[in-house]
Write a structure and sequence with these properties.
Keywords: Cytoplasm, Exosome, RNA-binding. About 10% of the residues lie in helices and about 35% in strands. It is mostly beta strands and about 180 residues long. Among the domains are: about 45 residues, Beta Barrel (OB fold (Dihydrolipoamide Acetyltransferase, E2P)); about 70 residues, Nucleic acid-binding proteins (OB fold (Dihydrolipoamide Acetyltransferase, E2P)).
Length: about 180
């Protein structure tokens, strides 16, 4: 099966895939067959297969990097809007070098860059900002955020899309 081939719901993938395979969004396993349950473009990278499609709402997946807005806070965690059906939870100790006494004090509407650590259809997603580069975005610098479709966001972060490198030749910028 070639990459970027369009699959419709119910289409079976041919058995040419060998070895252990990680099944991603848009596909599920029935007996020994992989079947699509969405319409989309078939994608394969190393031992991973998934369908790329345009969907209206973000469905959190484990280890996804996300940009979110703080919409509420309590003494133990922040509530973060990441564009999904439910707000995510960000524990106050889920920051690099955070302790009970020393942790970032974020206000409502602050922008954070985090990683999804819990993604389950029956529970709210959970985030962390432990790795370098993750955490609150610097609010003292001029910044601009905009909402784009999930399909465009996934295209932009792929290695083969030339738009960001073209902009980078003209202007210094950062992308989360």
């Amino acid at each position: 099966m070639s990459i970027n081939q369009v699959l419709l719901p119910g289409d079976k993938l041919p058995r040419e895939l060998k070895g252990t395979i990680k099944v991603g969004p848009g596909l599920f396993q029935v007996n020994n067959d992989l079947v699509s349950f969405k319409a989309g473009f078939f994608q394969k990278k190393e031992n991973k297969v998934w369908l790329e499609n345009n969907q209206k709402r973000y469905v959190p997946a484990l280890n996804d990097p996300v940009v979110g807005f703080i919409i509420g806070k309590t003494s133990d965690y922040y509530r973060v809007d990441i564009g999904g059906a439910h707000p995510a939870t960000l524990p106050i100790l889920a920051f690099e070098n955070a302790t009970k006494r020393s942790h970032p004090s974020l206000e409502v509407n602050a922008i954070i860059y985090g990683k999804v650590t819990l993604a389950n259809k029956d529970m709210e997603p959970e985030l962390e900002c432990l790795l370098p580069g993750f955490g609150p975005l610097n609010s003292s610098l001029p910044s601009f955020t905009t909402q784009i479709s999930l399909f465009l966001a996934r295209m932009l972060i792929s290695d083969r899309h030339p738009l960001l490198s073209s902009i980078g030749e003209l202007f210094p910028f950062e992308v989360c």
